[in-house]
């Protein structure tokens, strides 16, 4: 089973969304691009993508596949890097700080001065409707 599943046969709806999204992104880049030919080229490609998505979505199969194959490794690496950053940058320091400053909040440390590790809890009064809500 592959890590990343690439859609080799996208539907017309997916290709329409691809074309319109590409047109929107390239159109925004054209608006904010520097002067010269760049805004015109980006605007032309944006218009072509938008029209192709609206009129002939199947014509965008190869650009869709090409961009999917080009960006799949980037997505794979970024997802693993983000998992590592969250784990080692957030969860691990949080665990160390809680262990350091809060002490034994789960009662996991062994103590020789304790008679029992049993924790007494007060039980609520049992009701008849509790039978139907066991969990």
Description:
The protein has 135 residues and is mainly α. It has a domain at 12-105. It has three helices and no strands. α1 packs antiparallel against α2. It starts with 11 loop residues before the first helix and ends in a 33-residue tail after the last helix. The mean pLDDT is 86.
What is the number of beta strands?
0
The number of helical elements comes to 3
Question: What Rg is obtained from the alpha carbons, in whole angstroms?
Answer: 29 Å
Strand-residue proportion? under 5%
Distance from N terminus to C terminus (CA atoms, Å) equals: 36 Å
Coarse morphology: elongated
Question: Can you give the helix content as a percent range?
Answer: 55-70%
H/E series:
HHH
Structural class from helices and strands?
A: mainly alpha
Largest sheet: none
Name the poorly predicted regions. none
Mean pLDDT: 86
Key descriptive features of the protein:
single chain, about 140 residues, mainly alpha, 3 helices, elongated
Short description:
This protein is mostly helical and 135 residues long. It has helices spanning 12-32, 38-55, 61-102. 60% of the residues lie in helices and 0% in strands.
Give the topology.
Elements: H1 12-32, H2 38-55, H3 61-102
């Amino acid at each position: 089973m592959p890590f990343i599943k690439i859609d080799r046969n996208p539907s017309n709806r997916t290709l329409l969304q691809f074309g319109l999204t590409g047109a929107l992104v390239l159109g925004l880049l054209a608006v904010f691009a520097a002067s010269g030919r760049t805004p015109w080229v980006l605007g032309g490609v944006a218009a072509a993508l938008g029209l192709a998505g609206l009129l002939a979505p199947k014509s965008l199969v190869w650009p869709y596949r090409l961009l999917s194959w080009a960006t799949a490794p980037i997505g794979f690496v970024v997802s693993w890097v983000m998992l590592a950053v969250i784990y080692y940058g957030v969860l691990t320091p949080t665990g160390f700080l809680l262990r350091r400053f809060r002490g034994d909040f789960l009662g996991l440390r062994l103590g020789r001065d304790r008679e029992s590790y049993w924790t007494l809890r007060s039980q609520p009064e049992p009701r008849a409707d509790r039978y139907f809500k066991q969990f």
